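FIELD: query
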Amino acid sequence: MHVRIAIIGAGFGGLGAAIRLKQRGHDDFVVFERAGDLGGTWRDNSYPGCACDVPSHVYSFSFALNPGWSGTYSPQPEIWEYLRRWADRFELRPSIRFDTDVRLACWDGDAGHWRIETSRGEWTAEVLISAGGPLNEPVIPKLAGLETFRGEMFHSSRWNHQLDLTGRRVAVVGTGASAIQFVPAIQPSVARLTLFQRTAAWVMPRNERPLRRWEHTLYQRVPGTQRVMRTLVYWGIESTVIGFLRPRVMRLAQRIALRNLRSAVTDPVLRERLTPGYAMGCKRVLKSNTYYPALARDNVDVVTEPIAEVRPQGIVTRDGVEHEVDTIIFGTGFRVTDLPISERVRGRDGRSLAEVWQGSPQAYRGTTVAGFPNLFLLLGPNTGLGHNSVVLMIKA
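FIELD: result
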């Protein structure tokens, strides 16, 4: 089958592109979604405590503000529902091919279009939009002996909701943006939680509160007020770039983060383990009001020794200590710099994006790549460093 525009992925990027196309009168498009429902990151990540670390007023489509957010930071169920609501409002579901995995997309120079091989047949398209996103392929470290473990084991983005963690001895591997959310959520119910930390993160306090009834009413009746609030929040976030340009400003932020740590963790040994040994900005800065208090609880251990191997009943660190656990949860992130889709998209000379990039992704303004005609990337290389958005416009 042939369409003018093919979109890969039905998450925020893919749905946003589809809506914008419809608004501009383009109906000849299809969205390929490998899962059985839309939502992308907010469909896959449903772990306890899952929420966005970008303020609600900003984390939405600019053309579809939501006056009903429950708080200043939105939980996963609300964001997923928001995406489904707007997909239905613009009647996108008939254009989405669910359970359809894009296996290969090759540019046909003679025909002047893309040839797309999917798990449900072949398509051709003049324009290809890749909106697969970077947070969909989980990474599980290759630990020695991992296959011998006899307990339960899963990645945070593939949460086992059938497993009751009450009274279990849980190992959490990783201390990134997901772990700092689900660790406080599960800590009260588990018998023991052992957190294996490779690198301490900078954690800033989170200005979180419920939105009041009068705010909901105001945003519903006078939508312009929410747009003003969105603008103020947006520029507040954008202003943080000053810290990357002016080290003195970043040192001020570090003092705030260290004060946050001292107020929550009184044990000097634990506090030392949780103190980063690098300048803020070298890694993603995290936001949480509950992470440090959870780690200070009596049933939590923070282990900084590297993992040597996994055994049937536990994890052994390099110092020879075996930590007995019956559950391992990986909060070890995703394939961000080596996106799987890059291996499946081939350009004019037959080379894939992965072969062209050779481990160092580059794109013009994060959107287009030389040698790949009519290919547009959403959240492409170097566009995810802040909270910027990519606006895609296709002329008739």
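FIELD: remark
Residues 2-38+92-137+335-377 form a domain with the FAD/NAD(P)-binding domain fold (CATH 3.50.50.60).
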